[in-house]
Specification:
Elements lengths: L2 E3 L2 E6 L1 H7 L8 E3 L7 H5 L6 H13 L5 H11 L6 E5 L2 E5 L9 H15 L7 E6 L3 H10 L5 E8 L5 H8 L5 E6 L3 H12 L2 H6 L1 E4 L5 H4 L4 H9 L6 E7 L4 H11 L6 E6 L4 H6 L25 H7 L4 H7 E5 L2 H11 L8 H16 L3 E7 L7 H8 L7 H6 L7 E3 L3 H9 L3
Parallel strand pairs: 5-13, 6-7, 6-9, 7-8, 8-14, 10-11, 10-13, 11-12
Antiparallel strand pairs: 1-2, 1-3, 4-5
């Protein structure tokens, strides 16, 4: 299959080039040239299949032209090595728990898939690949742990100083080996801008083989569609329509859900739930899309003022604004509302993290306005990753999973970095 740039549909590349380059030379994001459809029989059969069997089916549809059946099986087995349980929180409201992987965040799925696919595609390469990653929290830890120790790959993670939770930070600043952490004196958007500028710098790219493991990379983005298929297969629908509410920052996660819908999964509606970084909810309510400086919140992984994956959403809806706004509804919430949600849901026997709380609120507001739905919100990280926020909200201590608590014992090792591009470029050039 060929992959085209969202900036120019005539610019087409192979899977290998799309994955290794990450970003198109025109600053566009790569998209599959065609989106395969599951048959009605295949969709009806999903409830009888395991998570991995669903993975073989879906990834097979997407990648069979480029990978062998054995490679697809290896890729899926490596990615889906943990569960994504659907948990009933209240009547017709379910949490899709995506935090049962190595770093207890949803990005473990995409990071593990990306690292394995990249290693399959790089088997004949003798050049070291530098993976550049901007993170507002969970991406850094998932990618660092997904690529740790992978031969021929060096990971450089840029994160905003003082704007990532302690646990998140420890998960990617204490690993060493082939993982380098740059502590940028700025916000997430500054980190993302540095990465994008490096990809588009022809002089730098002559010296280094650069790629990305952010959701702008097709290999990080596509596999996230798998847990939508899985959740739908386990969801008791009872004749009701289905809505997924996705806590959103860079909008790759909801884009993967829309990809699943385009492949034939009968999802009736999506909710894009954000914190006060609300450029997309504003757009969905009829305003012009306009990037803005990000605002720091308690749900820090969504503190994004210029979502990179927005062009993908437009492409998935064939640049039809009316269809986009019809199929996706936007809601946003401030920190007070986020804390209130954590406090409200706790007596129901369920503990939300700040991002899941935003997803829950978006789902509830949508369902209040639109009866006849059964809904799923994505719980994207274990609440222990945001221990300070959750414990303060609930007035009680959280018990951390052992593998999460273990990260706190590591010693932080970072390189301070300003937000100017020339300093970052100079650092990269020293690696060549």
């Amino acid at each position: 299959m060929k992959y085209y740039s969202t900036q120019n549909s005539n610019h087409e590349v192979s899977l290998a080039e799309a994955v290794i380059k990450g970003l198109a030379p025109d600053n566009g994001l790569y998209m599959p040239g065609s989106i395969p459809l599951l048959s009605l029989g295949e969709v009806d059969n999903l409830p009888s299949m395991s998570f991995r069997e669903i993975g073989y089916l879906v990834i097979g549809k997407l990648f069979l032209e480029d990978l062998s059946e054995s490679q697809i099986k290896e890729l899926v087995d490596h990615t889906l090595s943990f569960d994504a349980p659907l948990v009933e929180v209240e009547e017709n409201v379910y949490s899709l728990e995506l935090f049962h992987g190595p770093t207890l965040a949803f990005k473990d799925f995409g990071a593990r898939f990306c690292s394995k696919l990249m290693s399959l595609l790089l088997t004949k390469s003798e050049q070291t690949v530098r993976v550049l990653v901007a993170t507002s929290g969970d991406t850094g830890s998932a990618v660092a742990n997904g690529f740790l120790g992978v031969d021929g790959v060096e990971v450089i993670i840029l994160f905003p100083k003082g704007k990532v939770s302690q646990l998140q930070e420890k998960q990617f600043t204490t690993l060493g080996e082939n993982i380098i952490a740059l502590e940028v004196d700025g916000v997430f958007d500054d980190c993302q801008a540095l990465v994008k500028q490096a990809f588009l710098d022809p002089e730098l790219n002559k010296k280094l083989l650069l790629t990305s493991a952010n959701s702008i990379n097709i290999a990080r983005w596509i596999p996230q569609c798998l847990y939508y298929f899985y959740a739908y297969s386990r969801l008791p629908k009872n004749g009701k329509k289905v809505v997924f509410s996705v806590p959103s920052g860079n909008f790759g996660n909801i884009g993967a859900g829309i990809l699943a819908q385009r492949m034939g999964l009968p999802i009736d509606q999506f909710v894009a739930a954000t914190n006060v970084n609300k450029v997309v909810p504003d757009y969905l309510k009829g305003e012009e899309f306009m990037a803005k400086p990000s605002i720091q919140t308690l749900s820090n992984s969504m503190d994004v003022g210029n979502p990179s994956n927005f062009p993908r959403l437009q492409a998935l809806y064939r640049n039809d604004e009316s269809l986009f706004r019809e199929r996706v509804k936007g809601y946003f919430y401030d920190d007070t509302e986020t804390v209130n949600a954590i406090q409200t849901v706790q007596p129901k026997g369920y503990t939300l993290d700040p991002h899941g709380a935003v997803g829950y609120l978006g789902l509830k507001d949508f369902m209040d306005e639109n009866p006849g739905f059964v809904g799923v919100f994505l719980e994207t990280a274990h609440p222990g990753k945001f221990r300070d926020v959750v414990e303060e909200a609930l007035g009680e201590e959280l018990e951390l999973p052992e593998r999460l608590a273990a990260f706190l014992e590591g010693e932080k090792d970072v390189i301070p970095m300003g937000k100017g591009y020339e300093e970052f470029k100079g650092f990269l050039e020293k690696l060549s």
